[in-house]
Specification:
It is built from one helix and ten strands; from the N terminus they run αββββββββββ. By secondary structure, it is mainly beta. The termini are far apart.
Length: 245
């Protein structure tokens, strides 16, 4: 019996020695082993949230025509022809960031109606609607202030309205003719991000619109014909851009 107790005690002593040796060799991220005084635990760094990158945006703008000209010619009959007056332009659209510097967008414009011809009995006015595909290059990509250059190409719908016999109140005649033509733009401006994903956008835009419109109507004793060709507008524009997803 004494021999059995001695054997059990010896086996337990060997197992304890071996376990202590193994504990001293266990690797711990902080350095040292479980039995070393140098082990004080490790602070696991928290995950850092990666900002969500949005690639699509919506925009809205208002513009003012500060200078313009058009190929407008009075063929016959009395009257006077004006250059297009200074007016406003409303725009809305959507775009996509293609790279950190390049973006593209689809933009729609409505140009306020211009009165371009008038006599005592005749008024001619013109409104335009445009759809443009624009491409921009943003400088200082990644910053909150980004100057840019851009260009666009699309189509315009010109809506010509001519009222005659306007002195006959309530019975004046009105005719509306539509004309589709090519349009092109170049832009230079800047955008400033004053809140996350919300941009103030200001720019200068030159817009060229082709046209081939003729309006003929009786004006008093004779017929008058007005031909409208290409139009050139210089605009100052300001708007907002919102990154949505």
């Amino acid at each position: 019996m004494r021999m059995i107790r001695s054997a059990i005690f010896g086996a337990a002593l060997v197992a304890g020695t071996f376990g202590a040796a193994e504990a001293s060799s266990i690797w711990v991220p902080a350095g040292g082993s479980l039995k070393d005084d140098s082990f004080r635990g490790t602070l696991i760094p928290q995950a850092v949230a990666i900002p969500e990158t949005k690639t699509w945006y919506l925009r809205g703008d208002v513009g003012w025509t500060v200078g313009n000209s058009a190929d407008i010619e009075l063929r016959s009959g009395p009257g006077q022809v004006w250059k297009p007056s200074s007016n406003y332009v409303l725009s809305f659209g959507a775009g996509k960031y293609l790279t950190p510097s390049w973006r593209g967008e689809l933009l729609f414009d409505y140009r306020d109606r211009d009165k371009i011809f008038q006599t005592s009995t005749d008024i001619l006015s013109l409104a335009s609607y445009s759809g443009l595909v624009n491409v921009y290059y943003d400088f200082l990509a990644g910053s909150h202030f980004r100057p840019y250059l851009g260009a666009g190409l699309g189509m315009s719908l010109h809506q010509l309205e001519r009222k005659t016999d306007i002195t006959n109140i309530g019975n004046e005649s009105k005719r509306i003719d539509n004309n589709y033509a090519l349009a092109a733009t170049v832009m230079a401006g800047f955008a400033y991000e004053f809140d996350t994903g919300l941009w103030l956008d200001a720019n200068y835009r030159y817009m060229w619109q082709d046209a081939d419109i003729r309006a003929t109507a009786a004006d008093g004793c004779c017929l008058s014909t007005i031909e409208i060709g290409s139009r050139h507008d210089h605009e100052l524009r300001v708007g907002m851009r919102y990154d949505i997803w």
